[in-house]
Design goal:
The protein is α+β, with helices and mostly antiparallel strands and 164 residues long. The protein is built from 3 helices and 7 strands; from the N terminus they run E-H-E-E-E-E-E-E-H-H.
Length: 164
Amino acid sequence: MRGSQMLALSWTTPVIVPGDPATARDRLWKAMLRKAEFPVEYVPAITECAILERYADGGFLRRASRGERTLVQRVFPDEAAGRIAFVHEDHTDLAEIYDQIGEDESGGLTLTLGLRLTPRATERALTESGYLSTLNADFDATLADMTGKLIEAAASFETPAVAA
């Protein structure tokens, strides 16, 4: 595979948000927006994050530290699609990471963590043994960590019933 092709990978898990099922998706979305702005609370590998610029479309530019690397990402929230895209504006192997709310076949909520590799990283994934295994282990663990924290945050957005 040569040229500009990019490999896309994703991991999906069921999400059960405690509280009123009618508001579960909206509350999960609010938690995902919070994670986009404050990822240190949700993704253990991210140790620092700063919003550099905000845009009229609701998106923003952020700089995050992940281990020894500094990531610069343009964040694109799309509430209607239940998707937040993190487009890398630096020289990482990742072109884009995204979080996506979905539904399983029975109508239950799911959360997908996906990514697109740059053409260079796609070539590396196809030629270096262990590269995809390392990515899989990293993103599978990230999904597990962030899902628990997103569920906890979404549950905290529950509005208490008003007594009559």
